[in-house]
Specification:
Order of helices and strands: EEEEEHHHHHH
Largest sheet: 5 strands, mixed, barrel
Distance between the termini: 54 Å
Number of strands: 5
Radius of gyration: 18 Å
Structural class: alpha+beta
Strand order of the largest sheet: 1-2-3-5-4
Strand content: 15-25%
Length: 216
Amino acid sequence: MREAVELTGVVLEARPVGEFDRRLVILTGERGRITAFAHGARRPKSPLIAASSPFVFATFSLYEGRDAYTLAEADVKEYFSGLTGRMPGVLYAFYCLELASWFTREGVEAAGIVNLLFVTLRAIEKEQMPVKLIRRVYELRMLTENGEYAPPEEQGNLSRSAWYALRFASEAGYGRLYSFALSEPAAEEFSAAVRKAMRRVVDKPFKTLAVIDEMK
């Protein structure tokens, strides 16, 4: 009998398949983004219900197949249930999942991105800073983690606060990433710099951003 592998990560996406199953996209620290099927997860008493929803962080026990994994069980560490129904925070949280999926690949270690997602969802849930600024900090760090951004060495035309924030968000430990505050003008400078960097790298329209834009 095959042995299960244990992978630690977060559910990025969960879709119904057939009458009782779910197809999951999981970002794992060890093997990057994977696809897994949770058979029977839509049955009322299934032990896989709790682990088969977006935002769930867990250690997943999986059987490896040719093209996908089969979920056997999961030791859930965090559900982020506090995000449910919180608008617009939950939409920004879903965007964070979408962006992580876009940047990651199967077979490429992603422990840093998993950790980044955890602290970002926690920041949104706890409202550690305005959610629009959380989005930009997350985008900046995602670009940095993937080698697509380096903070400016010189202040240039930026205010000192915005320049410092760009450097801090690129280099700070995950636990401190959402620990700073900016004035409204400095936050706009910071956001404009990140927006410019994102446009250079990311050319995909994201569903959740479209919904957020409709709400404005």
